[in-house]
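Hi there, hope your week has been kind to you so far. Would you mind checking whether the tokens look sensible for this chain? I owe you a coffee for this, so here goes:
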Amino acid sequence: MTDAPAEIPAEVPAGLNGSAPGTLTPAKQTAQGVAAIAGMLSQFPQALAQVLQQVPVQAQTRQHLCATCVLGRLTWNVAHERELTAAIEMAARVHGLADGDPRLGQLDPVPFLPESLRPGGPQGMPPANPSITAVGGTEVCSEHIPGRPGGKQLLLMPGPLSQGMLASFAGIR
């Protein structure tokens, strides 16, 4: 059998730009798509606001701890490992958690420590303060800034301070 020769389409008139009558050219399709996207972009902020109102959103930043405080806490943990382990086991029993329960790491052992090892006691657990700056690449809290004048606690304010607030702290009005 011989194959019939394929039909050769007739030449398309230049006015149609290769499209059938009544259809859009690729350029017109692109222009309409861009216009539709531009129209949707103006509605985006309102749509995003509606979504955020329906979904609980919590801003979370990772707080770094003072390296000196962490070292003090680690040293204390090693020195009082037996008492700390017993306090964690007691907390687990009180809360009804078994070994291997993932919630064990969320327990606070402090109420189950002997009085002398609780914060403020004679051998109390040292604090792990948040860092406020870095000195020589080491993050430190206000208590561990080298050369801190007068050994006084620093006033730390969260968020930006207005000029009026700064003036009132300095005693200037």
Observations:
- The chain has a mean pLDDT of 77.
- Residues 42 and 109 are 53 Å apart (CA to CA).
